[in-house]
Amino acid sequence: MMTTDCFALMGSMGWMGWLMPLAFLLLIGLGIAALFKYLFVSRHTKEDRS
Description:
The chain crosses the membrane at residues 18-40. The chain is mostly helical.
């Protein structure tokens, strides 16, 4: 039921209703990818340098 209401709201807003949630999910995904890269890649480069 909640999904149906959400899609109805997104449809009534036009293209902006679809763009905003997709942009938000993209930003969250990029943030998670940057966090993983910071946690895992930076350790390996520090070990290689020393």
